[in-house]
Amino acid sequence: xxxxxxxxxxxxxxxxxxxxxxxxxxxxxxxxxxxxxxxxxxxxxxxxxxxxxxxxxxxxxxxxxxxxxxxxxxxxxxxxxxxxxxxxxxxxxxxxxxxxxxxxxxxxxxxxxxxxxxxxxxxxxxxxxxxxxxxxxxxxxxxxxxxxxxxxxxxxxxxxxxxxxxxxxxxxxxxxxxxxxxxxxxxxxxxxxxxxxxxxxxxxxxxxxxxxxxxxxxxxxxxxxxxxxxxxxxxxxxxxxxxxxxxxxxxxxxxxxxxxxxxxxxxxxxxxxxxxxxxxxxxxxxxxxxxxxxxxxxxxxxxxxxxxxxxxxxxxxxxxxxxxxxxxxxxxx
Length: 333
Ligand SMILES: Cc1cc2nc3c(=O)[nH]c(=O)nc-3n(C[C@H](O)[C@H](O)[C@H](O)COP(=O)(O)OP(=O)(O)OC[C@H]3O[C@@H](n4cnc5c(N)ncnc54)[C@H](O)[C@@H]3O)c2cc1C
Fold this sequence. Notes:
This protein is α/β, with parallel strands linked by helices. It has two domains: 6-126 and 250-329, FAD/NAD(P)-binding domain, CATH 3.50.50; 130-246, FAD/NAD(P)-binding domain (3-Layer(bba) Sandwich). Helix content is 22%, strand content 29%. The protein has helices spanning 19-30, 46-51, 68-79, 136-139, 166-175, 195-203, 298-316; strands spanning 9-15, 35-38, 56-57, 66-67, 85-87, 92-99, 102-107, 111-119, 125-128, 144-145, 158-162, 181-185, 207-209, 212-218, 225-230, 236-240, 243-246, 250-253, 264-265, 268-270, 282-284, 289-290. Strands 1, 2, 5, 6, 7, 8 and 21 form a seven-stranded mixed β-sheet that branches. A hairpin with a 5-residue loop joins strand 15 (225-230) and strand 16 (236-240). Helix 1 (19-30) runs parallel beside helix 7 (298-316). The radius of gyration is 22 Å and the shape is elongated. The two termini are 34 Å apart. The chain binds flavin-adenine dinucleotide (FAD).
């Protein structure tokens, strides 16, 4: 991307759309700053959305209990009070300080510019755990998928889903009325999914195959068939399969963040009391930060995000006040 005018630069470029990044984006809006969130996942919410959306969280101030999914949806409502650009399924590979108040952020899809950068990358970029077959890569996007963004895209198809967690079971149930057939294959004999969903699954028309492993994918232009084998007997079965959706969970790694020239200590970014990293103008918040006494909790990230944003505001404009004032004096809705 070529920068043609100053509008292409946002004030605060936020890497990571977990709770810390989402709250930072809201807070940037409160400080009348333009902002953009970039996240490698297809949805906002970080660990809460990827790992435990159905679980209750009990230690977020003001909520005696809230599911992780509900908290993410409330954070999204809050951040949408301001115009925010959200770039999903985009992994940040490089952050370069070109000059004071001008950072270039290179992703696997393009280039973004920010006057400051706030890294809220948690435990690193989440990516789906891949199907470990040599031919899997060649079928990616041609019958093999790791996310569902549009259920209707599977209408009338023979769909096979792999996995034993909530997402695999929920996707099977959601696709049952849409697809021609749905088969759920799980490596183990017991599902990790919520009991109620498993009960619904067993009553549905979904074909459930447990203790089965995927052995081979085949098809000319795109995926047409797959072979699965019983992990108990070794017996092989060939299934007709127009789409295979693999849900083996997620892996995360700090990955390229460790190579951006920022001081990193045991896999976390060292910050000062302003949440500034070793590179002036790059701030961090949430699980990714470290300092003496650091706790990796949502509540802590919610505190670090405003500290990072308010100090980033002063970095952009040294005349700006550090304190935002009280939101109760503002009219936001
Ligand atoms: C099962 C479980 C239960 C938990 N329960 C609680 C609880 O009860 N209470 C509590 O306080 N905490 C709990 N936690 C911890 C809590 O989820 C984390 O503290 C919180 O998610 C941290 O938020 P974050 O925004 O800093 O990072 P994350 O939630 O990890 O989000 C970071 C985001 O940044 C993205 N990202 C990283 N690097 C890149 C990159 N290079 N390019 C693009 N995107 C990138 C990632 O994809 C991710 O979406 C729990 C965690 C787990 C796993």
